[in-house]
């Protein structure tokens, strides 16, 4: 006998920052983030999915099950074929480079997280405040703020601070990483021409046709660049 779906709670989603929000069909889905309470950042529950029905204007909260991501802020959320993918983020333990997904088009009202661990290739280094283009069945991630070890430093990383005892460096990225959802494979595409945007975090990305645009970002100069997906 199938399990009953968890109860819904109707109301309004809490105010928050650093959350993920995606559109699928006529619904807006919101997960994660934090709220400031007396100058402290409190991460919001990782088992809550808030859904806003655009036609009715109603909010509802659904409890989630499965392999729950940690409560985080600055994760990057994107939707492909009715699945919400969450990558990266920051919590009390530091930066993440884990990838999770959940089916938003559930027929029984149960939302189940699954961590993607059986992938091929190498994921990006841990980071938050990155952005993502969705193109065909691919998630294309760009930038973000995070940490690297000394042997991981490269031209695509702008060092902001360092902890010399453990040889850990913090800073901004401008590398591009692709996750192919159809083959469960991470890879880095070769950049053949053009001048790459400067390393940045907290920027935004959008796709028009086969061109991806990145705009703005924290610390570095706000500017706009197109990338062509071939």
UniProtKB/TrEMBL annotation:
Q: Which GO terms describe its molecular function?
A: ubiquitin-like ligase-substrate adaptor activity
| GO cellular component assignments | ubiquitin ligase complex
Write out the pathway annotation from the protein's UniProt entry: Protein modification; protein ubiquitination
Q: What's a BP term from Gene Ontology annotated to this protein?
A: ubiquitin-dependent protein catabolic process via the C-end degron rule pathway
Q: Does the keyword Repeat apply?
A: yes
Q: Does Repeat appear among the keywords?
A: yes
Q: Which InterPro entries match?
A: Kelch-typ_b-propeller (IPR015915)
Q: Which UniProt keywords apply?
A: Kelch repeat, Repeat, Ubl conjugation pathway
Q: Known Gene3D superfamilies for this protein?
A: Kelch-type beta propeller (2.120.10.80)
Pfam (any one) = Kelch_KLHDC2_KLHL20_DRC7
Q: Which PANTHER family match?
A: KELCH DOMAIN-CONTAINING PROTEIN, KELCH DOMAIN-CONTAINING PROTEIN 1
Q: What is this protein called?
A: Kelch domain-containing protein 1
Q: Which gene encodes it?
A: KLHDC1
């Amino acid at each position: 006998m199938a399990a009953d779906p968890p109860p819904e709670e109707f109301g309004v989603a809490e105010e928050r920052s650093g959350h993920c929000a995606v559109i699928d069909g006529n619904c807006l889905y919101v997960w994660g983030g934090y709220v400031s309470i007396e100058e402290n950042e409190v991460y919001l529950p990782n088992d809550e999915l808030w859904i806003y029905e655009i036609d009715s204007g109603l909010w509802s909260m659904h409890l989630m099950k499965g392999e729950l991501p940690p409560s985080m802020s600055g994760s990057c959320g994107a939707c492909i074929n009715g699945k919400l993918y969450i990558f990266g983020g920051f919590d009390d333990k530091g930066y993440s480079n884990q990838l999770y997904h959940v089916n938003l088009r559930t027929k029984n009202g149960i939302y189940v997280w699954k961590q993607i661990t059986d992938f091929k290739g190498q994921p990006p280094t841990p980071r938050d405040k990155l952005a993502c283009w969705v193109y065909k069945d691919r998630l294309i991630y760009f930038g973000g703020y995070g940490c690297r070890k000394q042997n991981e430093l490269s031209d695509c990383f702008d060092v902001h601070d360092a902890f010399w005892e453990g040889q850990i460096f913090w800073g901004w990225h401008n590398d591009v990483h692709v996750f192919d959802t159809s083959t469960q494979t991470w890879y880095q595409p070769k950049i053949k021409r053009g001048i790459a945007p400067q390393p940045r975090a907290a920027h935004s990305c959008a796709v028009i046709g086969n061109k991806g645009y990145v705009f703005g970002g924290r610390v570095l100069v706000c500017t706009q660049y197109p990338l062509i997906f071939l």
